[in-house]
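Response to reviewer comment R2.3. The reviewers asked that we include at least one raw input/output pair. We reproduce the pair for Protein transport protein SEC1 here without editing.
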Amino acid sequence: MSLFELQKAALIAKLKSHRSEFRHLITDHTTHPIIEKLLRDEVLNYVFTFYSIDDEKRSLNREQAIYILDPLVPYTIDCLLADFSAGCRYQSAVLCFMPGLTKTTYARLKANSNLMKACGNNFDSIDFLSLNPLESRVYVTNNHYSIPALYNPQHFGPDLNEYQVDKAVEAMMSACVLSNEYPIVRYYNSPVSRKIAYLFQQTLDEYYRKHQELSPVNSKTVFFITDRLMDLFAPFCHYKFYRSQIFDLMDTQIRKARGEYTYVYDYQIQTGEGIEKKHLVFDDEDPVYSRLQDLPIEDYTKSIIEQVNELKATEAKFSNLKYASDLSHAALNQADYLFSRQLVTGHFELINKIDKTFRDECILDCMVFESKCASNLNGNKEMYEPLTEELLELLANEKIDTGNKIRLLIVYTYYRGGIVESDLRKLCHFGLPDQSKTDSIVTLFKNFQHLGFNMLKSKPNDKPFRITSYFEIKDTPELTERYVPSLTNIVTRLAYGRLPEVYKETYSSDRDEDAPKDFPYVKGAPIDDDDVGQQFNAPVRNMPKWKSSKQSIDSTKEKLLIFVAGGLTHSELSTVTSLEAKLNKSIFIGTDELYSTWDLIGDLRLINDERKNFNFPLDEKFARKQVPQHLYERSAATQPNKSSAPGATPNSAQSRASSRSSSAHQLAQTTSSDSSRKRDKFFKKFKALNI
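Raw output as returned:
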């Protein structure tokens, strides 16, 4: 099952456990979009009504409610207390909180006697909504601007850094709860990854100690935690994946917003009625995009041509129908055909545009240069090639745009281990048509120091910075195939059980015990299968004796859990998700955010900017807001109850039925277009054929 399906099933189970069909579902600005995305127009199948806590349209029925709230938001807590300020807004209330309930907030809630009376002095928790699934096994924490928050805490404040770490741990916990895994925790040995890994292990142990019945027996699943510092070379390179081409070459033509993950591409097609405007939405509901996104150029080009030919064959088949039974079958399938044709036509048009841009902007030359830089870093001596003259040729090429030239400068400087500022300014003056950007580029290079990379040297004779790199180089004559990104290499080694704790031995044999570990375990390495024989199910160092024997979901296929703090580019994501078929594993990968290379460059450029200029999620949550007056006014009971039928008591079945019908009608109005579209689907298929 996908993360989306697992999360939806868990939410429905939680609602049913509280008999939610008789309760109003009350959410806040954090949980409302999550539940709306999961249940969509099915929400009234499980609850009485569904509203945000500050919505004035909330039902006046006062019987039962279930609150699903984010306790970290002061405004949410203020609204909840306002609901019970002068009386009991609901006679019975279930309070379900996401992680983050502090002692101070807990004390405020306990001090409200009306609230405690309604909820029976009990709070429930929601442990599976802390991640936002974007694809079947890809999720984010929704913490955008993660680079400044994680790597410049001295400037932005430790609270932002702590919040970022806490949300990463909560999202990883949700992934484990949903997939029913108690994994072995490994991490990249950096300060950020180490901090997250130890907090995660502690939280994981505490959770399964309290929920022994949920603890799976599989002791082989690995949860690997890393962060942006493990590889700052990969996000600035170009890749052949379809997803990479879209977000690298078409980035300015895609409608999107930072922190939101709806990507829309608008295009026009010529029809018999003239030019029509269409759009593509890059998500799991687009089967063509899902099929092509992780394919390289040669494969996705071949695939889209095959799909176009299939559509032509289907269209020819429709035009030659003679019998009534064939016409009836065609009518039933016409809408699906038209939908498929629109998608294939849109992606075919986009791929043609990508191919033209790829050639016009000499992206292949950039890829070859980047691969050579990687080969010079990690390859053997036979692969070494001098690259300064080639860089100058690329910078002089007017077809390559400014953004890609900046990326080439970053890759070259990384390979050289830093350059002096005067040389960087000369290269900018030589290769960039807009000289006004030189100071901004120099600032960008200086800001890499916040991530431990000293890209600018004080003197030409200073030693270059050297950070252990974990990418690999293939010994192949195909230059664009040589470079294997770090994340691809590490995930592959993890899948085959071939990732040593000390990745590159740089110490003499008599000092092995002092060698620092690149990828240590939080609780020490588990016992090898060869040593324990058939006892691999017995408790190991990271598996407590009290663990139960409940099997994990989808236990027929091994899982590999990955989390990357600090965000990933869309290209880097494809380097991992494309491995699933080859490795025959279900790879669950999470990160703080998905961003384009241009977003990453912007974050690094502004890493010393004022906090108020960023829309950090934490600051948005703590923004001061006035509680609506109607919450206080409706807290106390009113006579008569407007939602009750005339002559009915508030607790009568007649009252409940009347209120539920009224509330359902209100919400149904908001989804009437979707419902109508479903009811008339059959007839619309016939109309499409003009029958």
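The radius of gyration is 29 Å. The chain has a mean pLDDT of 84. Further pairs are available on request from the corresponding author.
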